[in-house]
Design brief:
Number of strands: 11
Structural class: alpha+beta
Order of helices and strands: EHEHHHEEEHEEEHEEEHH
Length: 271
């Protein structure tokens, strides 16, 4: 269980609502927050720099919600939670409740509120290229991710030259893997990857064919997901040395949530 700092019913004045008078006249809001972080070091050292200053957090919440205007309290909560996670690096997760005591619904009600939890997610991703300046395409993808709000690039493996997989009548690939922290959902991250691929001139003309840039989600926390556009963990990673070799370099201990094998174990089982 992660440690947390709790803020209860911070009072502020905001202009959030679907009615014009709400955005002109404004009204009172109450905000409660649970700030998840490891407080052990702060507790042992008694040093504020090792923790998150809850006074500063309160002022940041108040300023943010008073300077921004949203029609929905869902949007106000979403953007405030994201702002806190981006603003305070020690935070791993935030649970935020935004209460509207004077909700204009024509009935007697104590308050209406939205409560959300948002966090940093750990993602491992693969990247590859076998067209043009392969190293430049891979480096460009890493830099594009570093410049994307809501993504932190933590570790990047060496880039390895490997034989083509599936369709072998094409040039060798330059491949690598990376560890990310992200606030994006899996599908938002997939859209982000596709956007970076498009900017690199990726054309999806032939399955497993030549490409300027290929970005794949391998793991997203311990999530197991399969739908019409996305499968997590990557469905064929256990058979791909060009994935397992660079993954072994940066995270040999990571365990596949379905196969229950580590990267190192899967790499050893390759033919």
């Amino acid at each position: 269980m992660m440690d947390k700092i709790i803020i209860t019913d911070l009072e502020l004045f905001g202009r959030h609502g679907v009615y014009p008078e709400e955005q002109v006249l404004g009204q009172k809001f109450l905000v409660s927050a649970e700030l998840f972080m490891d407080t052990r070091k702060a507790g042992k050292t008694d040093c504020l720099e090792e923790s998150v200053n809850y006074g500063t957090v309160c002022h940041e919440i108040k300023t943010f919600l008073e300077e921004h205007t949203y029609h929905l309290i869902e949007a106000a909560a979403e953007h405030t939670a994201e702002y806190l996670l981006l603003q305070f690096p020690l935070l791993s997760q935030v649970t935020l409740e935004l209460k509207k005591p004077w909700a204009p619904i024509g009935l007697s009600v104590e308050s209406v509120s939205v409560k959300i939890t948002r966090k940093w997610h750990t993602v491992y991703a693969a990247l590859g290229s076998n067209m043009g300046d392969r190293e430049a395409y891979l480096a460009g993808a890493v830099n594009a991710l570093r410049d994307t709000e809501g993504i932190r690039v933590e570790t990047v493996s060496d880039f390895l030259m490997t034989a083509p997989y599936g369709v072998t009548d094409q040039d060798p690939f330059l491949n690598g893997c990376m560890k990310l922290q992200t606030l994006l959902t899996p599908h938002e991250l997939l859209d982000c990857f596709h956007g970076i691929e498009q900017k690199a001139g990726r054309v999806r003309a032939r399955r497993w064919g030549p490409r300027t840039l290929d970005l794949d989600i391998l793991f997203y926390d311990d999530l197991v997901l399969e739908d019409e556009v996305l499968t997590i963990p990557h469905r064929d990673m256990q058979n791909r040395d060009f994935v397992l070799r660079p993954m072994k370099q940066i995270a040999p201990w990571v365990r596949h949530p379905v196969l229950n094998k580590t990267i190192e174990e899967m790499e050893k089982e390759l033919p």
